[in-house]
Write a structure and sequence with these properties.
Helix content: 55-70%
Strand order of the largest sheet: 1-4
Number of strands: 4
Number of domains: 1
Strand content: under 5%
Structural class: mainly alpha
Amino acid sequence: MFSYKYAYLLGNLLILFPAWLFLFIRRRDLRKEMLIISTIIGIAGPLVEFWYLLDYWRPETFTGWRIGLEDFLFGFFFGGISGLIYEELFGKHHSKRHNRKHHWLWFIVPILGSAILLMNLMVSAFGINSIYAAILIFVVTSLIILYFRHDLLIVSLASGILVGVIMLLGYLVFLSLFPEAIHRWWILNNISGILIYGIPAEELMWAFGWGMVAGPMYEFFTGLKFKNTSGFL
C-alpha cells in the first residue's frame, strides 16, 4: 500500500498522465490546442487551490506544502484531456472561422481575471463554499460562450458529460488504490455529504461544469469551428 503522502501525485501520474499522453500521441493535429489548454489550466490549478483549501478539501502532498506540484499536474493533465476528449471520441477536425467578431483570444486574460475576482467575492464576501462557487462560475462561463457561439452547444454539453464520466472512472481507480482518501482529505461536513460510489457528488458536478467550459474553450477563444462531418454529434 502506497503512503497517502504520495496519493495525489500517483493519482496524477498513474491515471491522468497515461490518458493525456495517449491523446497527445494520437491527435497530432490537436497538439497545439492540447498544450495551450494544459498550460493555462496547469497554472490556474495552484491559484484556485487557495480557495478550495479553505473549505472544501485538504489533500496531502509529497512535499508537505499546502499547495504542491500535484495541483499543477492535475490542472495540466485534466485540462488537456477535458479540452480534447470530444474531438477525439467523435473524430472532429477544425476549419478556420473568418468572422473576426468571434475571435476572443485577446479577452482570455480579462475573462480569467474576472472569474478569479468573482470566485473571491463569492467565497470571501458571501461565504459560499468554494466548490459551489466554482461550479456556478463554470455554468455562467459556459452560458457566455454559448451566447456568442451557438454552434458550440453540442460540444459543451457532450464535453460536460464525457468529463464527468472520466472523473467518475478515474476516481474508481484512485479509490481502489487509496480507499480512505475521501474521508482523509475532504471536509465532508461543509458539503452535501452525498457520495456516489464513494465519490463526493460535488466532484462530479464540478467535472460536468468544467467540461462544459473546457470542451469549447479553445474554439471560442481562437474563433475556430469544426468541419462538417457525418454523425449526430
